[in-house]
Design a protein that fits this description.
heterotrimer; A alpha/beta (534); B alpha/beta (308); C alpha/beta (398); A: seven-stranded mixed beta sheet; globular; C: 398 residues; Quinone Oxidoreductase, Chain A, domain 1; 30% helix
Chain lengths: 534, 308, 398
């Protein structure tokens, strides 16, 4: 049977006394939480949009009829230097079932390049200061055909932001922001960027100006000031982060770096219609089979060892469907992309709330196939989830954010070495992002060991935990308090937040800040949605 | 204190649908339930085997039917639409047993979509045991009509209760137009059947059968006239039914006379509400000897019988 | 004197040793109740072994980690030839001698033993390294408190050689004075490390000894950066109040040392070590884990001082060999050289206690009849927020 798409829009449900408990993610575990009646509401994300029937045809069509650009075929010629950059492992979350959209797009692009006869092609994972992708992950993203054709010749590799010879300084914006890009990209006749836009923050000039850049340029927008003025960074028009990226992009354009941007959007079909379908359904629509699946799933997750639990959850591949693909000039393409992302994700919500609640899942962009450590919990909760709004924040100024996550002080020494030091040294000294930036950032950014692990191992850059902390800077200044339900008390306190053992306790703690009878909004996700707050 | 079992909560029981939320179209049940599988050889032959053995045994032990006027359809060949008055769940089995084998083995029964097909287990059981197909009784449903018509065209005979459900009080109810419509559309004759007595054996609402003899009479097959529309034909079917009922109460000739005069007693009973409708129902003689096997085992029944 | 002497006596009793050893696996310090200790009353006074010996009445006597090891049956057999039983424990003693307050320097060296001529270390004043710990006028015993003839501090009275007695300065209370002996150990270890002003030093452990070493380093040879591995919050606070230092949890010391040295971590898990490391590490714990961690954070050719008593340990010494690390012990004291001048360690310790206000390290004083509680408190001092526990023999005797 083919998949049925109801594609109902998102829903804001007022909780009354007969409302059943709602599903809440709790790291790798699942919980059902009863919300206080009469003053709570639940925001349900929209259902998956119907994907394009023939994605490959849509991709070919986008390449042949690009926006504000000549068709791709006419931009290519045989003796050119061509670089194809693509989004890294942080997108989409969780990873998608094969074939990945990037594979489809890249194969279509390479088909045309082969037809024209281009020899000098490099494929670069545009990971900026993220960890390098493993062979398996690269194969998953670009597909075996592309990998086997280019990787053995050294033409498919991870971007290296610490390669002293690999980056060039292009110039400065009129605001004094340095612009840096991979030397290969700078020297190419054409850079094709293959993007996968999961949230509205991705894409546009952020792809190239950030993805193929280095610390020297990134620090001009990945800093506390910028993040405090990005309200939110999911809303490009109001995001200082994007304003600065766009300025850097202009400098790239003026310097003659020619970018052909291919952006794709996928629906939010995380669970498909198989065994895990229940996790994407609304509670009152759970059939007997769904409920049995849920009970079994919850019980087995609760009984698994943490590492087995992590492995089984990280092993999930989502059956996303491609909903749009557009190619051509960066900004024009990105306008359409953003509107397509919004079509899938926007839920209109009336008014702000005193308490905003999230159940944080097991994954964020920086722990794919890895461990979600407390700093990433901060980043996911206060960085990403809090910022899933347009207009004004979902929670009022001085309100409380309640997160549900085990927040164990567990780190991957391979992927997050500098995070451990950040946790042990920086967070024991301060939780103030500005103090961190002033007293610690430079030392971590220039630490030789981190640099070594970033370049040769699979470690995030030394400065990355700082960016994770800055990501939540706006939320920290906006919120009155943050409570983490079920979190390791010591770790939660070190983050500067308050631990609570149950949701009821968390609400009790929150009442210190927002008084009794506060309004509560539980933003149910994943799948991701974005609140348009009026 | 009476001990009470803990009430299962979500997710052990289902969650109530919030009031302001539109509920989902359910799974493919009711008139969307596809019964094709139940007419495939395996399901069909196991059904026939079970009906001919177990079904027949149960029915004869409960009501030992007497069948009248079977000769009226002896010459017919299929397909046919059998219409009958409806008092009891036994009616379907009775008809299945009473009609000739050539119809019996290629037979579907129209069952109320909202009653027999509202959950998947019920739909599966009813489709297999009776060869039921879903029929919408409260609204016009093209889907169920087309489904039945296709089967008639395919040579399947159909049992349908035009009253749309079992009688709540022993009196007949107004006929719905489905049978007549199908007969007109597929050009299939209609055979009226009158069943007398099942309202005493296992009336609506009863869970405990009171075995006794019942009677089943076939009427003359009717075909829709060239220019006859289905509404007219439906009236004719109802009239035919009243005539066989009259024939059961009196005799063939009296019934014919009254039918031609247009004053066959109505099966619908007095135009009254409430208990008086039940009160007006004629008594039936209690015929202990006519009871089937189960009935004889059942002498100690404490059920209060209505005596006149 | 009519009631006689009351002492907590440590007797040779194999069954009780075994019981203590087993019980202490489950709960350290349970040797105090099931082990070889017994509170005895109406004991006869000890004889004065020879001329120069006097009788003193302890005011306070501390409980040392070596006492705990003995009580829990975990002492190294190394001590067998230099201990005589039954003995009265207690070598951290402040006592009354003819109305004057004294502290006992417990090492039983040549002078106290009446050995003539005195051995070379004793002649230098390096009593701790005396070569005659089993000879002379008193029985075998490395210190008062481990010798059957001298008695010990956990008693209403004991005997001591006059050379062992140091008058307590008037401005030091008993509670401060009882810390002189342990602080003398700490001072000795700190000075043994010979820390240079431009060096990076690490101290592992922040119990009495660790904190004493931190204080002593800060006072006499402050390093450029001092890293302290402290397990419990009160230890962290005290360490910060004693010296300018960075404190980390013991499990974090490798990374912390990497950060201050700008080094790299090689290997993973228990095999992790720094590519370079700190110049000198003083281990004040003495467990195999702490010694290995000390070696793994110390640079090649660096120094590791074992101040905590290690006992029998299984340690991979390849690191020591490959990195040419100097491993040395630091046991007791005698005399120290600071910038070319010689001092008695006890004098330095008294000065350190007064200057750094170390009296706050004495957390609790128990009467004698509650010695089992005292020992269990001392054995779990860190987790119970304590540092030093002492026994007051004047209280709780019958």
């Amino acid at each position: 049977m083919t998949r049925q798409y109801r594609s109902r829009p998102g829903l804001v449900l007022e909780v009354d006394r007969s409302t059943a408990p709602v599903l809440m993610h709790h790291g790798e575990q699942l919980r059902l939480e009863k919300l206080p009646a009469g003053r709570s509401r639940v925001i349900y994300p929209p259902e998956p949009l119907k994907p394009i029937d023939d994605p490959d045809a849509a991709i070919r069509d986008a390449l042949e009829n690009p926006i504000d650009s000549e068709p791709l075929r006419e931009l290519l010629h045989a003796d050119m230097v061509l670089t194809i950059a693509f989004d890294d492992i942080s997108l989409p979350l969780p990873q998608m079932k094969r074939p990945d959209v990037r594979q489809r797009v890249m194969e279509a692009v390479l088909d045309i390049a082969a037809e024209v006869g281009v020899d000098d092609i490099h494929l670069i994972a545009a990971l900026a200061l993220h960890r390098r992708m493993t062979e398996e992950e690269l194969r998953h993203a670009v597909g075996d055909r592309v990998y086997d054709a280019f990787a053995p010749r050294g033409q498919l590799y991870n971007h290296d932001a610490e390669d002293p010879d690999g980056l060039v300084l292009i110039g400065e914006t009129d605001h004094g922001e340095e612009v840096q890009i991979s030397r290969r990209a700078a020297e190419s006749d054409l850079v094709i960027y293959v993007n996968l836009n999961l949230v509205s923050m991705d894409g546009g000039w952020k792809s190239t100006a950030t993805g193929l850049s280095g610390y020297q340029a990134l620090r001009h927008h990945h800093n506390v000031h910028t993040m405090l003025h990005s309200k939110s960074f999911m809303d490009r028009e109001n995001s200082e982060l994007h304003t600065r990226n766009w300025r850097q992009g202009e400098v790239l354009r003026e310097a003659g770096v020619k970018v052909f941007q291919i952006e794709t959007t996928v629906n939010n079909d995380l669970y498909g219609d198989g065994a895990l379908e229940v996790l994407g359904k609304r509670e009152w629509e759970w059939s007997a089979r769904d409920r049995a699946t849920f009970i079994g799933l919850r019980a087995s997750l609760d009984r698994m060892s943490p590492s087995l639990r992590r492995r089984s959850m990280q092993g999930w591949r989502a059956p996303y469907g491609l909903t749009s693909v557009q190619a051509g000039e960066v900004t024009a393409v990105h306008e359409i992309t953003t509107s397509n992302v919004f079509d899938q994700q926007i839920v209109p919500v009336e008014g702000q709330t005193d308490i905003l609640m999230f159940g944080l899942p097991y994954i964020c962009p920086y722990n794919v196939n890895s461990i979600m450590n407390p700093i990433l919990v901060h980043c996911l909760g206060l960085g990403y989830m809090f910022n899933m709004y347009r207009g004004r924040p979902l929670v009022r100024e001085g309100g409380v954010l309640i997160l549900s996550h085990p927040t164990e002080p567990e780190f991957s020494p391979v992927n997050h070495p500098s995070y451990i030091d950040f946790y042990e040294e920086v967070l024991t000294t301060t939780t103030d992002p500005e103090v961190m930036e002033r007293d610690f950032e430079k030392r971590y950014a220039e630490d030789e060991w981190y640099r070594h692990l970033y370049r040769t191992g699979y470690a995030y850059h030394g400065v990355h935990p700082f960016y994770m902390w800055y990501w939540g800077a706006h939320a920290r200044s906006h919120l009155g308090d943050v409570v983490i339900v079920g979190g390791n008390p010591e770790a939660v306190r070190r983050l500067g937040y308050r631990p609570a053992s149950t949701l009821a306790d968390a609400l009790e703690i929150a009442s210190d800040t927002v008084g009794h009878q506060p309004s509560i909004t539980y933003f149910k996700n994943p799948p991701l949605a974005m609140a348009d707050v009026s | 204190m009476r001990p009470t079992l803990p009430r299962p909560r979500f997710p052990l029981s289902s969650a109530p649908t919030p009031t302001e939320v539109e509920s989902l179209p359910g799974p493919d049940l009711q008139d969307r339930y596809d019964t094709a599988w139940a007419r495939k050889p395996v399901a069909r032959w196991t059904r026939i085997a079970a009906t001919e053995t177990l079904g027949r045994a149960v029915v004869s032990s409960l009501c030992a039917p007497v069948i009248h006027n079977r000769d009226r359809i002896a010459e017919m060949d299929g397909p046919l639409i059998f219409v009958a008055n409806h008092h009891s769940h036994l009616d379907t089995s009775l008809i299945q047993m009473a009609i000739p084998r050539r119809f019996r083995h290629r037979l579907v029964v129209a069952g109320a979509a909202d009653y027999f097909f509202d959950t998947r287990p019920k739909a599966v059981i009813n489709a297999w045991v009776w060869g039921a197909i879903p029929m919408e009784r409260h609204r016009v449903s093209r889907r169920s009509a087309i489904g039945a018509a296709d089967l008639l065209d395919d040579g399947w005979s159909l049992v349908i209760f035009p009253e749309g459900g079992r009688s709540p009080d022993g009196w007949g109810q107004a006929h719905k137009g489905g049978a007549a419509y199908l007969a007109c559309r597929c050009d299939v004759p209609v055979v009226p059947i009158f069943i007398d007595g099942t309202d005493r054996v296992l009336p609506k609402g009863s869970r405990r059968p009171d075995p006794r003899r019942v009677h089943l009479s076939f009427g003359e097959p009717l075909a829709a006239g060239e220019s006859e529309d289905s509404r007219k034909f439906a009236e004719r079917i109802e009239a035919a039914m009243e005539m066989i009922a009259d024939e059961r109460q009196t005799d063939w000739y009296t019934a014919r006379l009254r039918a031609h005069a247009g004053d066959s007693p109505s099966m619908r009973g007095p135009d009254l509400d409430s208990w008086r409708r039940s009160w007006a129902k004629p008594a039936t003689e209690i015929d202990e000897s006519a009871k089937g096997l189960l009935g004889r085992l059942h002498r100690t029944s404490k059920r209060q019988k209505r005596q006149w | 004197m009519s009631r006689g002497r009351e002492s907590i006596v440590f007797e040779r009793n194999i069954a009780r040793f075994g019981a203590a050893r087993i019980a202490s696996q489950w709960k350290p310090g349970s040797g105090g109740s099931v082990g070889p200790l017994k509170l005895k009353t109406r004991l006869p006074e000890l004889d004065l072994p020879a001329d120069g010996w006097v009788r003193i009445a302890p005011h306070l006597s501390g409980i040392c980690a070596s006492d705990l090891a003995a009580v829990d049956g975990r002492s190294s057999r190394w001590f067998d030839p230099i201990v005589s039983m039954p003995f009265v424990p207690g070598h951290e003693v402040v006592a009354d001698h003819d109305g004057a307050r004294v502290v006992v320097e417990p090492v039983l060296g040549c002078v106290a033993r009446g050995v003539q001529p005195v051995c070379a270390p004793c002649a230098r004043g390096d009593l701790g390294n005396c070569g005659n710990l089993a000879h002379g006028q008193v029985s075998e015993g490395l210190q008062s408190g481990f010798c059957c003839d001298t008695g010990g501090g956990w008693s209403t009275s004991m005997v001591a050689h006059q050379s062992q007695l140091h008058p307590v300065p008037d401005d030091l209370s008993d509670k401060a004075a009882v810390l002189i002996e342990p602080m003398a150990c700490a001072t000795h270890a700190a000075l043994a490390a010979q820390v240079q002003p431009d060096e990076l030093a690490a101290v592992i452990g922040a119990g009495t000894m660790g904190l004493g070493v931190v204080a002593a380093l800060a006072r006499w040879t402050p390093p450029a950066t001092l890293l302290v591995a402290a397990k419990y919050p009160q230890q962290t606070q005290l360490a910060h109040s004693l010296a300018e230092c960075r404190t980390v949890a013991p499990s974090e010391i490798l990374r912390a040392a990497r950060r201050i040295t700008g080094s790299q971590i090689l290997g993973r898990g228990s095999n992790a070590r720094l590519a370079t490391g700190v110049d000198v590490t003083i281990d004040c714990v003495g467990s195999p884990a702490s010694i290995e961690s000390a070696i793994s954070i110390t640079k090649p050719t660096g120094r590791v001082i074992l101040m905590g008593m290690p006992g029998k340990s299984t340690i991979d010494l390849t690191a020591l060999w490959q990195r040419e690390i100097n491993l040395r012990g630091a046991y007791t004291y005698g005399r120290e050289m600071i910038s070319g001048r010689q001092y008695r360690t006890f004098d330095l310790a008294a000065e350190l206690i007064a200057a750094a206000d170390l009296q706050r390290m004495l957390t609790a004083v128990y009467p004698m009849n509650r010695y089992a509680d005292a020992i269990s408190h001392a054995a779990s001092a860190g987790s119970r927020g304590a540092v030093k526990i002492a026994i007051d023999p004047r209280r709780g005797s019958r």
